[in-house]
Amino acid sequence: MNLNNKTILITGGASGIGLEAAKQFLDLGARVIITGRSQQKLDTAKKLYPKLIAIRSDVGNAADSALLLDRVKELGGIDILYNNAAVLVPPSNLGIANDKHAEGAAYEMEVNYLGVIRLNNLFIDMLQSRKEAAIINTTSILSEAPSLIEATYSSSKTALAFYTTSLREHLKIIGSNIKIFELIPPLVATEMTADRNDKKISAEEMVKGLIEGLRKEHRTIRVGDAKIFNLVNRLFPKIGFGILNPKKSHQLLRN
């Protein structure tokens, strides 16, 4: 897929992977619109990369999403919707069976899953009208095997992975030209993972892997260790589960 002269909307684009993606897409000649909840972060991103178009919008808010569609229409529309925004609620030491955890799970599901569906539904007609269009949904290796300390985040990403496959097949059946990509990253060095001491890749490396996958039109794009994990987990699921849930995570559950 050629990214030059494409208009790309990146949710959660004011920091981390989203901002790095915005930078690299701009370098490739794309027009980039970023969204985020923090106006301060959006303003900072705009100062770093003046060519960016920054719009404050919360993907977990239905009203914001509708207003975003109207604003993007005013800007001439998009060719690619990159659903990058996600939240991870820190695990509660009360365990998974409590009201506090349920509230966190609802928030994760609203942003990581329902918000993606809402945006896709809003933008589908616009994308359908384009000569070459795509949707990129970001899942996780945690959609292939769950994390004990991030159980509901894993669940939200698993739901998104199944939805992405269904959406791709549905659009294929109706003859749509929209390409559906699933991006499966490993652990990436961002604010969300700042307290993790596990092996991470940089956001720069992550986005380079994404762009390579888009160019080669790999509908499922696994980057870095996500490729190896997929093979290990399919052949030896117990080992895969153990990789994501080392003994040190068991201690966190006991504390």
Question: What's this entry about, in short?
Answer:
This protein is an alpha/beta fold. It is built from 9 helices and 7 strands; from the N terminus they run E-H-E-H-E-H-E-H-E-H-E-H-E-H-H-H. The mean pLDDT is 91.
Tell me what you see in this structure.
- It is a single chain.
- Strands 3-2-1-4-5-6-7 form a 7-stranded parallel sheet, with helices on both faces.
- It has a single domain, classed as Rossmann fold.
- Strand 6, helix 6 (203-215) and strand 7 form a beta-alpha-beta unit.
- It has helices at 16-27, 39-48, 62-74, 99-128, 151-173, 203-215, 225-235, 237-244, 247-254, and strands at 7-10, 31-36, 53-56, 80-83, 133-138, 178-184, 220-222.
- Helix 1 (16-27) crosses helix 6 (203-215), helix 3 packs parallel to helix 4 and helix 7 packs across helix 8.
- The protein is an alpha/beta fold.
- It is built from 9 helices and 7 strands, in the order βαβαβαβαβαβαβααα.
Number of helical segments?
9
Biggest sheet, spatial arrangement of strands: 3-2-1-4-5-6-7
Order of helices and strands: EHEHEHEHEHEHEHHH
DSSP strand count: 7
CATH fold-type name: Rossmann fold
What Rg is obtained from the alpha carbons, in whole angstroms? Answer: 18 Å
Report the end-to-end length measured between terminal Cα atoms. Answer: 48 Å
Quickly give the structural class. Answer: alpha/beta
Mean pLDDT: 91
Question: What percentage of residues falls in helices of 4 or more residues?
Answer: 40-55%
Q: Residue ranges: pLDDT <50 for 5 or more in a row?
A: none
The coarse silhouette is globular
CATH superfamily: NAD(P)-binding Rossmann-like Domain
| The CATH C-level class name | Alpha Beta
How many distinct folded domains?
Answer: 1
Q: Main sheet, how many strands, which sense, barrel?
A: 7 strands, parallel
The fraction of residues in strands falls at 5-15%
